[in-house]
Amino acid sequence: MNGIQNGLFLLQQTTASNPTGSLISTIITFGLVFVIFYFLIIRPQNKKQKQMQQMIAGVKKGDKVVTIGGIHGVVASVKDSTVVLKVDDGTRIEFSKSAIASISPVKAEEKAEDKPDEKAEDKPEDSAESTRKTEKEKTEDK
Prior knowledge:
Number of helices: 4
Radius of gyration: 33 Å
Helix content: 55-70%
């Protein structure tokens, strides 16, 4: 404990004898704090804001959208500053474009959902299963 107090005491003596040195170290410290804040807070926030603006500008009919209020819907029409969402079969709600939190294209998802159904129907059956079925059919016929 005495070592820390002695170190602080010596630091105070050196800064008291050289006031310009303490001013320079203070300016350097504030400059470093600003640089750290810039790279850790300001710059990433600006990038995120730019991405959000590009995303909102790219909204088109058929995109699946989630609003900042948590409402999910499909874009029915796009106007200058608003978007009309189809929430249910007969329900349409008009939102400001700035109320959009995320966008995902619905067309690609629909295609991906349709293909597994078709593949399941076209999938050849296992040969062991097909022989069991034919044997059961033969026994049922007798």
